[in-house]
């Protein structure tokens, strides 16, 4: 390790970088102190690269780091009059994907670079994963449809009435297997067999708001509903607007375009008003409380804007929460900076929600899939 005075300088420099907006963890400061003890403080160039390698983690922080380094270490620790730190100029080249296209805003230059060439890869799928659905172009919607088809939605596991064999010496005795094993040992039951309750995934119920306020997101979220319905059994899908429409059968086709077209024909109030309370009351009276929502994971995909009575919505959410295993509310607006659930519908429903998550991008829907599978 460095000497006490050197340690204080290292800590002071780390504090200066944090003040300049860099994310410098305590572990990185310790690593820099160890690196500085090895390279020494006599060479300013070695000290510079030791600090940059251990304290800088983002390319956009290099400029602020350089200014802080020059201001802090000038005449301190490094020998006065030492040679300035050499900056290396790199030429950045994009390693295009297999289709030969270039990323947005990039141009293909076939001239030979003057300096060293740094080749970096980029991924169109990774860009789309974090982009807001409302900012998608038609081409990006088509690409997202392919990526969304890979999503798999599995409900949390619950105990089943069906018994399964177990290797553990506890549970309910399995007489048939015990006798079968005894036949191999001359009729002597040397090893007893047991059974235990198995597990099966819970039913998933998806209630998607297709009102006018959800128009920028409804197209992508209905694609998500289709991927969930065709990806596994025990998934029910409903469209919520001024009325409630069951679209499970329409979304059961593996042809995504045909399935969504059939669902659009079925939903007559697409891009209309929103009556979440009345829609949930119909769901509870006709399907939910009667059995579909009992022990299920219910996912509501809505921005919470409701033209109906918020007291009705609160009452129906309370009924739903009493019979469902978990209630998950997916709000695409939650990712907006400064968002607060102040809409009347959202404020009325939130006390009965177990998980309140985002739903504005592919990455958020992937996170939703993990939330649904949580016990």
Describe it:
The model is unreliable at 77-94 and 117-122 (pLDDT under 50). The protein is an alpha/beta fold and 375 residues long. Strand 10, helix 12 and strand 11 form a beta-alpha-beta unit. The chain has 13 helices and eleven strands. It has helices spanning 4-19, 26-39, 44-55, 62-73, 124-130, 138-148, 175-182, 215-231, 256-266, 276-292, 310-323, 344-349, 362-373; strands spanning 91-95, 117-121, 157-166, 172-173, 194-201, 204-209, 235-240, 244-246, 297-301, 326-331, 355-358. It is 42% helix and 16% strand. Helix 2 packs antiparallel against helix 3, helix 6 runs parallel beside helix 8 and helix 10 runs parallel beside helix 11. It folds into three domains: 4-73, no CATH class; 161-200, no CATH class; 202-373, von Willebrand factor, type A domain (Rossmann fold), CATH 3.40.50.410. It is extended, with a radius of gyration of 30 Å. It starts with a helix and ends with a helix. The strands form three sheets. The chain has a six-stranded mixed β-sheet, sandwiched between helices. Strands 3-5-4 form a three-stranded antiparallel β-sheet.
